[in-house]
Amino acid sequence: MLDLKQLEKQYRDELLDNVLPFWLGHSQDKEFGGYFSCLNRNGDVFDTDKFIWMQGREVWLFSMLYNNVEKRQDWLDCALLGGEFLKKYGHDGNLNWYFSVDRQGRPLVEPYNIFSYTFATMAFGQLSLATGSSEYADIAKRTFDIILSKADNPKGKWNKAHPGTRNLKGFSLPMILCNLALEIEHLLDPEYLRETMDTCIHEVMDVFYRPELGGIIVENVGADGSLVDCFEGRQVTPGHDIEAMWFIMDLGERLGRQDLIEKARDITLRMIDYGWDSKYGGIFYFMDRKGFPPQQLEWDQKLWWVHIETLIATLKAYRLTGDKRCLEAFEKVHDYTWGHFKDKEYPEWFGYLDRRGEVLLPLKGGKWKGCFHVPRGLYQCWKTLEKINTNR
Predict the structure, then answer these.
(1) Do the Cβ atoms of 390 and 9 come closer than 8 Å?
(2) Domains in the chain, number
(3) To pair with 135 at 20 to 30 A between CA atoms, which of 314, 346, 367, 389?
């Protein structure tokens, strides 16, 4: 029997006593501003390039904690260090956000990646709440408008696909917009917000969710919403799908739609079953809906964010529906996650395991892992458990 009070303390303490001090102590670049995200197991910096979406994520994380947990000056100072760096160096002057810059802020990779924009929006949305700055709020609103204008072709002129032959649209953007809409709710006109939420819900739950495939979510569909039989069209990414379901649950709660919450719960449980490695445990990174070999060579790796997002989704589903199956799924994933990703010698968590659950890379941060999924997940689980325990 799970001790939910003890679990609440476990997630809170891991966040406040272990993970946050790691990032505060090792990631801040006090000389040039912004953050180092490429950190070895013990926190030493091994590369000084700065990836814009990682900068945005850390600004968001410390702003959000300042707004929702405690008005700690060191958290606000950390958020401002990144926010000011992003404002000065993260974009081309017209809020086209680069993918990466060097330590001093000189551009390295052009603004091809829409997620530089989404996390800049999240960052400045929360930082505007923390500071009351109209300048930060304006950056968030203007960047959000640019994101929506790019919805049909997120990479713009950097799109490698030849036009007209196989026009695909991906799950990632509508999925993240489900979360982003609520993140900057305080900055949006209510009617505009409602339209955005309705569009995102439709895309996720009516276009990419496919009942005819047994109730799974596919990563890419044709521009007309049709299934496409190619590598990209057959791709299933269980972690993405499960993460999206807790965004949908948040929207369902916000809109008072229990039907949406229950549908998201069912998809969460289905995707855990679909993606679970029955031989070694853990959730696969990529899968092919027809069972063919995936194109990604890392398809069978076990990644930190996949499992942490699943912890959030199962706990939220249990809180909002009372379905004991969600608690059972949480327990299974909790045991795997804490048993494999938590580093028992140094703070923060490992990110990359092989199929057997052994550590592939001992890094704590890099080009794709930063100050985001682990602390956000610990926060979400802590607060969800707190609500469950308060209402018992």
Answers:
(1) no
(2) 1
(3) 367
| CA–CA gap between residue 92 and residue 112 (Å, rounded) | 12
For 82-108, the pLDDT digits (tens) are 999 999 999 999 999 999 999 999 999
Are the beta carbons of 63 and 40 closer than 8 angstroms? no
Whether 369 is in a domain gets the answer no
**Which residues lie across from 106 on neighbouring strands?**
none
Backbone conformation region of residue 249, classed left if phi is above 0, alpha if psi is from -120 to 50, else beta:
alpha
Burial of 47 per CB tally in 10 Å (0-12, 13-18, 19+): middle
Domain that holds residue 283: 168-361
Rounded to 5°, angle at Cα 318 from 263 and 339? 115
CA distances from 385 to 11, 12, 232, 266, 320 (A): 9, 10, 37, 20, 12
What pTM, to 2 d.p., does this model score?
A: 0.97
Mean pLDDT in residue range 260-288:
98
Provide the token pair at 52. 């814009």
The answer as to whether 318 is a domain residue is: yes
For residue 108, give the DSSP letter: E
Query: How many CA atoms lie within 13 Å of 304's alpha carbon, on the beta-carbon side?
Result: 26
Q: Which CATH number does the domain housing residue 258 bear?
A: 1.50.10.10
Residue 273, judged by CB atoms within 10 A of its CB (0-12, 13-18, 19+), counts as exposed
Give the tens place of pLDDT for each residue, 192-247: 999 999 999 999 999 999 999 999 999 999 999 999 999 999 999 999 999 999 99
Report the SS3 class of residue 133. Answer: coil
Residue 250 near residue 204 (C-beta atoms within 8 A):
no
Instruction: Quickly tell me which residue has 């439709």 as its tokens.
Output: 202
CA distances, 44 to each of 26, 37, 364 (Å):
7, 10, 10
Q: What is the pLDDT of residue 60?
A: 98
Q: Tell me: the pLDDT tens digits for 148-164?
A: 998 877 778 778 788 88
State which amino acid sits at residue 322: G
Confidence of residue 13 (pLDDT cuts 50, 70, 90): very high
The one-letter code for the residue type at 181 is A
